[in-house]
């Protein structure tokens, strides 16, 4: 393996090789052998690709069983955990810097990438095959020590392809871009979900009134286009905010519940258990203890 300008440093007895030490590369590759990675998230867009073996990636309460060539996209602040199902697994983690990502999307706030070979490959095989070739090309370029400008160029192709074909708002679960009329309508819906105010997230009835659309029609249309109802999407955003606060602060569950827009603490606990199979207190305890076992870390 050739690394241009590589430096080697040691963290916890693990060899870590870094290709660019000036901090200016907007994309980086890390390769892990994982036994256990407890819940975590990143402020970057992340591709996790299986190079060898089998793993289980849990996103929310949904299990994804991935093997060689499978991959999954993790959006910023999307929580996941990983368990190795074979000892000899090898995973590529490709991180795209948030400012770099913003160059390829007009509104990062409402952009969510839905890309997961375990659940959706059969619905969109041709597009997944194209994306897989791009990802493999980028990984190879890292391993052979390509110049930064070529890595950036290839990364840009990947991001452009993702936002054109796997943008949840603009393509839904059908992976076919909606008309501008539909996109503009649901841009408003998603914006209402992401922009939480002091009283929480707007109700669907409020959204329908502002759009002058039938509540019954909108309720059905959201589920058909996006696979979930407005209520689930609403609580998923609230739970995401709550998760970050639970893991990174000492605020009480009551305070966090109120801050994230839940009318009662019992609803935070109820929906948190649906997403994690844990109560908020159990999640905090598990996160604090941190049961992580992974090695053979290489950073390009």
Key words describing this protein structure:
300 residues; Jelly Rolls; globular; alpha+beta; 44% helix; eight-stranded antiparallel β-sheet; Arc Repressor Mutant, subunit A; 22% strand
What does this molecule look like?
The protein has 300 residues and is α+β, with helices and mostly antiparallel strands. The protein has two domains: 23-174, Jelly Rolls (Sandwich); 201-288, Homeodomain-like (Arc Repressor Mutant, subunit A). Helix content is 44%, strand content 22%. It is built from twelve helices and ten strands. The chain has helices spanning 98-101, 117-120, 125-143, 148-165, 168-171, 180-194, 204-211, 215-226, 230-248, 253-259, 265-276, 280-289; strands spanning 7-11, 14-18, 27-40, 45-52, 54-59, 62-67, 71-74, 80-84, 90-96, 293-299. Strands 3, 4, 5, 6, 7, 8, 9 and 10 form an eight-stranded antiparallel beta sheet that branches. The protein has a two-stranded antiparallel sheet with strand order 1-2. Helix 3 (125-143) packs antiparallel against helix 4 (148-165) and helix 9 packs across helix 11 (265-276). The radius of gyration is 20 Å and the shape is globular. The termini are close together. Residues 1-22 have low confidence and may be disordered.
